[in-house]
Amino acid sequence: GPAERPPGLRERAALALTAARVRTAGLTDPVSEQDLVAQHSPLMSPLVWDLAHIGNMEELWLLRNVAGRASLHPEIDPLYDAFEHPRAERPKLPLLGPDEARRYAAEVRGRVFDLLERTPLEGTALLDSGYVFGMIAQHEQQHDETMLITHQLRPGAPVLAAPEPDAPYDPPAAPEVLVPAGPFTMGTSAEPWALDNERPAHIRETGAYWIDTAPVTNAAYEEFIADGGYREPRWWAAPGWEQIRTHGIGAPLFWRREGGQWLRRRFGVTEPVPGEEPVLHVSWYEADAYARWAGRRLPTEEEWEKAARHDPATGRSTRYPWGDGDPTADRANLGQRHLRPARAGSYPAGASALGVRQLIGDVWEWTSSDFLPYPGFRPFPYREYSEVFFGPEHKVLRGGSFAVDQVACRGTFRNWDLPVRRQIFSGFRTARDGGA
Ligand code: AVJ
Ligand code: FE
Hints:
With 436 residues, the chain is α+β, with helices and mostly antiparallel strands. The chain has 9 helices and 12 strands. A 4-stranded mixed sheet has the order 10-9-8-11. Strands 1-4-12 form a 3-stranded antiparallel sheet, with helices on one face. The chain has a 3-stranded antiparallel sheet with strand order 5-6-7, with no helix packed on it. A hairpin with a 2-residue loop joins strand 6 and strand 7. The longest helix is centred in the N-terminal third of the chain and has 23 residues, at 131-153. It is globular and about 60 Å long. The structure holds N,N,N-trimethyl-histidine and fe (iii) ion. Residues 16-147 form the DinB-like domain. This is Hercynine oxygenase. Gamma-L-glutamyl-L-cysteine binds at residues 87-90, 417, 421. Keywords: Iron, Metal-binding, Monooxygenase, Oxidoreductase.
């Protein structure tokens, strides 16, 4: 019957925009006025900035650039341009207050729904397949993850709640999987809402390599700490060694040692570090140092994507490790359904063709690769999404965390950050070269 008909593009766009706004409300409505306007870390904006910035990007792309309307409130536009004001400066700006920001975002959204009903989703690159609506839903979800990071950094009592992961758990027998040498298709030219940096599809070659079946766990990472990993310069890239010396770092962010055990603070609650869970809140330097200590290395970005998408039986690259179907609750820990990763070895239904687990969801995974354009890259629709960040200073993360919504997560999705960053929901898995 009609209930089983897959949603059309217009409906998909409306659902994605609404899901993002429900999540935004959940991240801001339970927060006090004072905590919405405060800056909880110099790395982050006040939550009230993200809230109005979400509305302002939506107005810019959908109401001004697509529909050709005039700015609703020209005086506020410069306040919410991420390139005009670095995060540390944002609390001093004359920002909209919480209620004004909510009203503004809601006003924009009402007009956007009118536009979505009346606009053909074809004819221009921005409108084809509803691209710009999908891009704006992804933008809001990305800021929702950013706001969740702010929640994690915020001192004080918890305001968020979610059920514990109840994922199917069936630890794989082998700790690593051999990926055969040969070509595969990286990136996409077919995924309608893929962002510019995921395009175009192109062929890459890799050698044979072994990759961890699941992300590195807290228990494994604790062995590195206990073995003096943070006191041994030979494991560390020079800037990483400098960072841990300067800041006295000896464990992942939010960890502390008490009574002979590791505790961590997670969204306002202190708890023992769970050994079977993927390690979280490590920098690229910490991931790189652990891998070297373990006699291994981080996977390159193409090795990660080949493990996640290449089906040796068909030679095709799939959208996700499990195939082309959308993520489901038994395949991946996405969408802030839980406020933590699931145990390493969960989600057997989400395994890749070769049996690699938890590539999608749980923790973002650092790769060894710099964030660079694919051959044939074209900035679209704005240079400031990806192009201005290309270069050796940013490292690529793959796979998405528990805080990523499925609209902004697929086998081709690329995230990036500075290698010193640890407040993000970052973990990793390791690799090593395969035999001849
Ligand atoms: C892709 C997560 C690095 O948050 O800086 C949000 C996403 N771009 N608004 C970021 C983004 C513009 C971006 N990351
Ligand atoms: Fe943004």
